[in-house]
Design goal:
The chain is an all-alpha fold. Helix content is about 80%, strand content about 0%.
Length: about 140
């Protein structure tokens, strides 16, 4: 139990001290991880449908956190485009969860992976704003 508490404390500290761009990457990473878990459970035909549903809902929550982080004043057309994409992803995930559709999960995961790669480039460039505008949401990605 002590090891779990230390790991949890480490994750929480890592998140609290991350820059805005790094935090966005962490959200993408966790959303992709949750979709991988859901896909694996569906592919293994393990009948863990409650686990599949929970993983998809967690991914939706993370995507919602990405929506909340958008700054439409500074982000302009890019923020609007990301908003539309994120809303599309959440709709696709709702459909995937209802129908237990692996192909929809794969599609959204592919898009998230591509966007994550783009964010990696943005975060890697010094002095580039993340478009967060200082706002943070309330989702717990520490586990």
């Amino acid at each position: 139990m002590a090891t779990f508490n230390r790991l949890s404390a480490y994750k929480e500290t890592r998140i609290k001290t991350a820059s805005g761009g790094k935090l966005i990457l962490m959200i993408y990473d966790e959303a992709i991880r949750q979709l991988n878990i859901a896909q694996e459970d569906l592919e293994n035909d393990s009948y863990k449908l409650d686990n599949v549903s929970n993983s998809i809902i967690k991914a939706q929550d993370l995507i919602t956190e990405l929506i909340v982080s958008l700054d439409f004043d500074k982000g302009g057309e890019i923020a609007s485009s990301l908003f539309s994409l994120y809303m599309f992803f959440n709709q696709q995930l709702m459909d995937a969860n209802f129908n237990k559709d692996i192909e929809l999960l794969k599609k959204v995961r592919t898009y998230l992976t591509d966007l994550r790669s783009a964010w990696t480039e943005v975060v890697g460039k010094a002095g580039v704003s993340t478009g967060l505008g200082g706002r943070t949401g309330g989702i717990n990605i520490a586990g």
